[in-house]
Write a structure and sequence with these properties.
It is built from 16 helices and no strands. By secondary structure, it is mostly helical. It has one domain: MFS general substrate transporter like domains (Growth Hormone, Chain: A), CATH 1.20.1250. Helix 7 runs antiparallel to helix 12 and helix 11 packs across helix 15.
């Protein structure tokens, strides 16, 4: 029997932690102009600072994902939170670009443990009828954190210097870890009807990775998400600087709009997308991938605004539409992954996906830093339109040729969890 209720305390604490996770990682992009002035960082160095986090995150993600499938997920969440909070505070104590690169590497290693464990916990405590919405609420929290971190960094940076933001964020994380220890106590066991049967399924010989290789649709999800992440991370890291250079915005204004236009649509989009995802999944879980494909095509058209010399209002409208389509697509990703895989493989699978995403994102961010002086950020942003079309093509291949067979195999084992 499927559980019919939401575990609101779990959703609330993980959403709060997730918000801080993105707050800490993205605050740095809001102070790029200050880093350039204070540390003498070039565009390439700024790209390196941003990419250092992403590449270390990519290295650590599959390892911690595997660990989260074998030890306490609640413990992984708490350890990760404390570790990245300490590193965030240390960011405010750096005095050179090289030191900042080392700190960003450490931040990536500390933060990468969180999302695989958190999504695994949410999936364990919510059945397929609630899973999309529960995960989408958590994803919305990531967007709130991105906006809050960038805005706070820009505001404080203008008045007190860029280091103050990171000292405050680190202290907030240590305080939140105390609350998390209380709320997460006893939350490692999944509730009845969510995937307890799946947890008892024996792994294929050779372990979890070999089992994942037997699910081609998972690799479609990973590849399309990896392609999409190239574009997403370019925007997340370079959009505030684009607004400063192209529209003469203040540091605080550019930081706010650079994050808000990308992340505010998530507050509505991933929650609404979660409802859409759960609705289409009641007819067929394959519908989640179809929604992704459609959203990528629409988003690609909207980004063509960067091919011309348009006003801020038009650019902002296009970015809002792009972000809304992206959020609808993202809301289907983790729920579909959970439909395809048993509980004991999910954190590993999400860890691998995060690894691929951040590795690709790091390439995009660094590449933008290298190409910026020759082509400009407008041309780089416009090229993301083509990247989205490639992601849509990958989705189409998976939807028509691979996904029905993989879902059928899953439904044969647990028919109440997956609709064909």
């Amino acid at each position: 029997m499927q559980t019919k209720s939401f575990n609101w305390p779990l959703i609330a604490i993980l959403t709060s932690i997730g918000a801080l996770n993105y707050c800490d990682r993205l605050a740095i992009s809001a102070v790029f102009p200050l880093l350039r002035a204070d540390l003498g960082a070039s565009d390439v160095m700024l790209g390196t600072i941003a990419s250092a986090f992403l590449w270390s995150y990519a290295i650590g993600s599959p390892i911690v994902g595997w660990i989260a499938d074998h030890i306490s997920r609640t413990r992984m969440v708490q350890i990760s939170l404390i570790a990245w909070s300490l590193v965030t505070m240390a960011t405010g104590l750096t005095h050179s670009a090289n030191q900042l690169i080392v700190i960003r590497v450490l931040l990536g290693l500390a933060e990468c443990a969180y999302i695989p464990a958190a999504v695994g916990l949410l999936a364990d405590h919510h059945g397929s009828r609630q899973r999309g919405r529960a995960i989408s609420i958590h994803t919305a929290g990531l967007g709130i954190g991105a906006v809050a971190g960038s805005t706070l960094a820009g505001f404080l940076g203008q008045r007190y210097g860029w280091r103050s933001t990171f000292l405050i964020l680190g202290a907030a994380g240590l305080l939140l870890s105390v609350i998390a220890a209380i709320v997460l106590r006893g939350k490692d066991q999944p509730v009845s009807g969510t995937s307890s049967i799946a947890m008892q399924e024996p792994l294929e010989t050779g372990g979890i990775l070999r089992a994942l290789l037997r699910v081609p649709s998972y690799w479609v999800l990973l590849v399309q998400s990896m392609i999409l992440s190239i574009g997403i991370w370019i925007f997340l890291n370079w959009l505030p600087l684009y607004f400063t250079e192209s529209f003469g915005m203040s540091l605080a204004g550019a930081a706010f709009y650079g994050a808000a236009l990308l992340e505010f649509p998530l507050l509505f989009g991933v929650v609404a997308g979660g409802y859409i995802s759960d609705a289409v999944a009641r007819r067929s879980s394959a519908g989640r991938m179809l929604v992704q494909m459609i959203c990528y095509v629409i988003a690609s058209v909207l980004l063509l605004v960067f091919t011309g010399n348009f006003t801020f209002a038009l650019v902002a409208a296009a970015l809002l539409g792009f972000s809304l389509m992206r959020s609808f697509a993202v809301a289907n990703e983790s729920p579909l992954l959970c439909d395809l895989l048993p509980s004991k493989q999910r954190s590993t699978a999400i860890g691998l996906m995060n690894s691929a995403n951040t590795f690709a994102g790091g390439i995009g961010v660094f590449g933008a830093g290298v190409l910026k002086s020759n082509f400009g950020l407008s041309a780089i942003f416009a090229s993301v339109s083509g990247i989205l079309l490639i992601a849509a093509a990958v989705n189409a291949f998976g939807y028509f040729f691979l996904l029905p067979r993989d879902l059928q195999r899953r439904a044969d084992k647990i028919p109440e969890e997956v609709k064909i």
